[in-house]
Fold this protein.
Amino acid sequence: GDEKDNAFARVLQLTRLERFRDRLARNLSGGMKQKLGLACAIMKKPQILILDEPSVGVDPISRLDLIAMVNTMLNESTTVLWSTAYLDEAEELDHVILLDSGKVIFDGTPQEAIRNVIGRVYVFPNIRSKKREIASEVLKDPEVLDSVIVGQSVKILVAPHKQISSTNQSSVAGIHSRMALKFQDLNEPLSISPKFEDACIDILGGMKEKESPIIDFMGDVSLAGDDEVVEAKDLTKRFGTFTAVDSISFSVKRGKIFGLLGPNGSGKSTTFKILCGLLRQDAGSARINGIDISDMGSGAKMNIGYMAQKFSLYPILSVKQNLEFAAGAYGLSGQKKKQTISKMVDIFHLGKLLDVNAGALSLGFKQRLALACAIMHSPPVLFLDEPTSGVDPITRKEFWLHINAMVMHGVSVIITTHFMDEAENCDEIVMIYNGKIRAVGSPDAIKAICTNTPEPTLNHAFIKIVQDVDSSLG
């Protein structure tokens, strides 16, 4: 009766799902599904709420909504147990237990962990060119535990000074002088405040894999021809009366990473599928290396690698059978096929899992297998649809080690992601909302939209762009 109606009204208001109450659950976007799942879990105001990676595949706005919903629960004296692979999310929690290989390796507050890396996180700022080469080279330095591209800067985590028998400052100066021998115009590194992710990478002992073996496998694979490898012109796609993609135009340059960002249900995945030839547009055109997508024969399609958002390989086939099937589908045979599969197994550490059914793999290994199958034919253009959604931080960093290595060898990458720290790797970003492009530019240019925010992030920019559009539409 009334109690049920009140509970319904309360969770619909909390989730902002009121206007979708008559829509079938299967037709909701990923973010809406997660909010609906949480709404069902909190209906009875439980004393203990267990959330198993609630924000996987969820955009920054929906993540804010999820956190706001949970905070509302806390005001009603609920204890929340929250598992997550997103360390920016974990930084906001009261207490954290960090697990690795089934063992507890940290138990305390995020702030306690962060204190251990204060004075050990630096950025090389305002890199004019070769940011990938610099990030790759500095990671090989024995005193560097991690290096990350942040727009036009490279962030590094250095080892604790007791391990390198000098003060951190002199060790960082040494790193800079060694790097400056290879990159003459490299600015001196600046000390910055660490994040919980830096602390976790430190606790885990830093990056074990310091260089991607993909370089030896792929060689230089860029397409000959125009500098614009992928072009979209006035792309439009309708589903019934709903326009999912509304006259979108952009181009992707050779050997660059291009990010398609936007909230769940914004039209970016539809755009992505049109570019891959998985959906046919209603108007406009899409071209890869000058060839219209709709005219591409199977030979031209060999120029494309595609990794789907959801695990799309065969779950009832073993890892080895999936690799063999993908190799055959891409026209590899004989010795070449055998060698390629062997290299994929080595690069992605699949050796002990060859006879395991793909459906039984952990998410991190599923994603490794999916990427292996997408690149085994050395495609010059690679489409990655949320490739690291829900994977652990080290595996995510390994993925980006591989992606950046491929890009340095001429591969052009088009990527969608809801993880804004990851989008910092992009050379150019297009932000799509309600089927239209709302912002375009480098990560640093997009962040500059937040004029009133000190040290703005792409998260800040994402939220501001969506809120500005919403307010203009009333």
